[in-house]
Amino acid sequence: MSLDVHGNLTMKALLEEYPGARRALFAAFHIGGCQACAYAPEDSLATVCDNNEIPLDEAIKCLRESHDHDQEMLIQPTELQKLFDEGELFVLLDTRTREEFEAITLPKARLMTQELQTEIFADSNQEQKIVLLDHQGRHVLDHCAWFRGHGLKNTFGVDGGIDRFAKDVDPSIPRYRLEIDDPS
Predict the structure, then answer these.
(1) For the whole model, what pTM was predicted?
(2) Could you give the CA distance from residue 154 to residue 88 in angstroms, rounded to a whole number?
């Protein structure tokens, strides 16, 4: 799936369609990391590039490449179900809050805690498959990048989180909305 990005796209629309854009722009151009290089949600990508003296075509190329890379870190909810069905050995880490985890949990999921993360990072099995799950997939790519950056290259995130898993795979799982979620 190719990222449809252009100069007239607002930053809000870009970040909604592609949450990894914030990370990509900061890593490549130091955009959005501090007050000096901040942008408003209604700013267009072209305006942000102009304000930071970055060629628009370079920013678009960076965003597309980053998006393609991010897609390689995701598995679809149906793929997670296939892992369950085939009995494949993997670690399923739920990165949501303790309250969310205790309310709704997938089989074999473990709540991601600082202690568990430290244990996993210290484990000598750097090839173990790790699947990360959040609420709606908004933060899972950042978590995947963190794990992969610590040498766990076989880490994947569930696209759309537990919410999409409930919609696409198991409608018996209750869906919920957080107060901080965007109602759209």
Answers:
(1) 0.79
(2) 14
